Amino acid sequence: MVPSSSRTEVVRAGVATDTAFGAVIPPLYLSSNFEFAGLGLPRKHDYTRSGNPTRDQLEVALSRLESAAGGVVTASGMAAVTAVLHASGRSRVLAPLDCYGGTYRLLSAYHERGFLNCSFVDFGTDDWAAGLGAAGEALVWIETPSNPLLRITDLAAVIARAHAAAAIVVVDNTFLSPIWQRPLELGADVVVHSTTKYLNGHSDVVGGAALARDPELVDRLRYWSNCLGLTGSPFDAYLTLRGLRTLHARLQQHERNARAIAALLVQHPGVRCVHYPGLAEHDGHEIARRQQDGYGAIVSFELRDPDQVGTVVDSLRYFSLAESLGGVESLVAHPATMTHAAMPAAARARAGISDGLLRLSLGIESIDDLTTDLQTALDRALQAVDVAEEVR
Ligand code: PLP
Fold it and tell me: Please, what is the angle between helix 53-66 and helix 234-244, to 10°?
């Protein structure tokens, strides 16, 4: 559990700190630059790309939740990924086969250009460790649960193996947020977030963060974010901090809805299989129970008949067909043509992402509406299959 004191601190981040007017909610500092107190006398901040008071507040709140020494708030999740790749100084990267499509694209592009050597591996077997190379050479990139198949990686086991080879371990914690999983407490070196998702939670900001345990690595993250111009805008930081204040409360409802939807999907005859770590039959259920404080609110499933994907998504009323996840509104995505379209078909097949796979991001709407809506859409798809079989 995130200590209740940290949750309280996040709700109250910056509250009643305004000395000019006593504003309860901290002011937003949009200024791109800051006046020097005199020649050779800079204040805490001089230029917003390098540092900004509003962004600082978000960095502090996120670091508190993730038990980090500090970090950087970036313009997107991919900017945070980029900052980590540069700050790590590692030339060899081991990343999961089914990592987020944008991460896959960036790592592949860097690999093809010779900037680094990247292998996509399966952390579910022991074979991956053969790619660690010489001591201190590798960066191990983990996403757990993975996107979109919700595979669970045993963090303690992979971190121990990676650290034995002096590798830096990074965990993309976007799918769970620090409320449900805190990788740094399990020994990881860096945590990455697309704050676009649960941390902001309202689908109106694109942002990211990279947070580290070691202050020296935090300094390197800051250096590279400033150097490459990756830092986020103050306005986005303001909105994200506003969303973060309700994170804990929102996630309770997100997860209640996910559990109910997973239970519905499991019993539907039109569904071939359901991927949700909260289900006892999920391969990673036991590890998830051990290392997570919640099972999350992303559920993916495969239809028996991939030709019915269109019928399902067109029939849904309360699930918008859209990229992204983690907002208060429910979404449905078709990974093969949307989130993971950047992956070549062969890589998708290797990762197990089929054309019949749909991914749901459960929002916080009334569960009765969501279950009725999904049941109706799946029934309609099943009827279409029956009709097609009769015609044949
Ligand atoms: N990591 C994960 C797991 C994601 O799902 C995403 C985006 O969907 C990203 C990173 C990239 O984040 P952003 O879109 O904010 O750049």
Answer: 40
Condensed to tens digits (0 to 9), the pLDDT of residues 127-138 reads 999 999 999 999
* Separation of CA 370 from chain center: 23
Nearest CA, atom 6, ligand 1: 194
| Among protein residues, the one whose CA lies closest to atom 5 of ligand 1 | 100
Distance CA 358, CA 334 (A): 5
Distance CA 212, CA 224 (A): 14
User: Ligand 1 pocket, 53 CB below 6 A?
Assistant: no
- Residue 78 Cα to ligand 1 midpoint, Å, equals 6
Establish whether residue 194 lines the binding site of ligand 1, counting it when its CB lies within 6 angstroms of any ligand atom: yes
Helix and strand numbers (H, E) in the chain are 13, 12
pLDDT tens digits for range 220-231: 999 999 999 999
Is the CB of 77 inside a 6 Å radius of any atom of ligand 1?
A: yes
User: Measured between alpha carbons, how far is 25 from 300 in angstroms, rounded to an integer?
Assistant: 38
pLDDT band, residue 392 (cuts 50/70/90): low
Q: Which residue CA neighbors atom 15 of ligand 1 most closely?
A: 77
